[in-house]
Request: fold
Amino acid sequence: MEDPLLAWRDQFPILERTTYLVSHSLGAMPRAAETRLKEYTDTWGSRGVRAWAEGWWRMPLTVGDQVGRIIGAAPGSVVMHQNVSVCQALILSCFDFAGRRKKVVYEGLNFPSVMYVYEAHRALGAEVVTVESDDGITVPLERFLAAIDERTLLVPLSHVIFKSGFIQDVPAIVRRAHDVGALVVADLYQSAGTVPVDVAAWDVDFATGGSVKWLCGGPGAGYLYVAPRLQPRLTPRLTGWMAHRAPFAFETGAIEYADDATRFLHGTPAVPALYAAQAGYEIVAAARVEAIRAKSMRQVQRLVDLARERGLRPHAPERPDQRGGMVILDVPHGQAVTRELLRREVIVDFRPGAGIRFSPHFYTTDDEILRALDETRQILDSGSYRAHEAAGGTGF
Ligand SMILES: Cc1ncc(COP(=O)(O)O)c(C=O)c1O
Reply:
């Protein structure tokens, strides 16, 4: 079958050597990232300190606008930070828990780093309420909606669940939250770049995500969207001179916030990361997320079908429209099988309590999916995973 997205393959060097099915963790590096990083060192080397005025200082906004085009955010409503955890902490620093509205509601399958940020605010009065999953895969929407009430301040949810690929109904949750005066923070890390996102149409209050995964932008480039209608009302306590209305006046004392989204910045930005990340945003935008999603739905179904045919059990939503870009397979000896797959240049990862995560992206061929599943079956049947059972190591 004709697949025009495969034309992008030669832009990703690692695809020449590996079966790369790990874009839910680290998207493949586009060649243009090297060019961008060279541009960064050339600029630093030739322009020196003048580089700040010539673009570096505004990069958290100009690069934010590039992300904005992918997630449906208006220009000037996205700023760049280092990662999601910092963005969540920055959002929280706009609020307090002194009044009646002190509940934070999210799913039990939320990304742990996000939980750590909110849990730590129990010390300041936050009441964290977790909506548990019945099957470890899906989040019960009715129970989620029912947990959001007049005492709820924030709903920091994951659009796509990192441990199962389940897509949550963000617009429904936003409607419920707004009906009772609560605000929604959508973590788009596992969706933006593979599942279409439209923060403006969904009327989300805040959104955040990073560039490491489906956006193929590498580490150090997290983004924060704040709905334009909210921006003037918010005064983050996690702040710094970039958020000041006149940073180069070096006024002492309390901050006077900028009128625009720069009020959601703090100190000096991670300029090299912002250079590298642009390569990913450009290629994802050019490939178009709608086309990526159509291909992803087809390949995810192929993965599920081929896995079942090989006696491998998907830990994934039943409904295709509720599946994001990854498929988790609940394979026995998952950790050791993953290590053997990596040794065979099939790049996947393992999450305890879930299984081995496989992710086709727009650069993946159908044959690569077949190869990965055949290798998995062969590793189980031959027992070659056993050599890895005693090994320690990290979760990457
Ligand atoms: C849903 C989700 N949120 C957040 C993160 C990462 O958070 P941070 O950018 O703070 O490292 C990940 C994955 O690493 C994730 O899957």
Q: What stands out?
A: Residues 83-85, 111, 113-114, 158, 162, 187, 189-190, 210, 222 surround pyridoxal-5'-phosphate (CB under 6 Å). The CA atoms of residues 10 and 16 lie 8 Å apart. The longest strand covers residues 152-158. The chain has twelve helices and twelve strands.
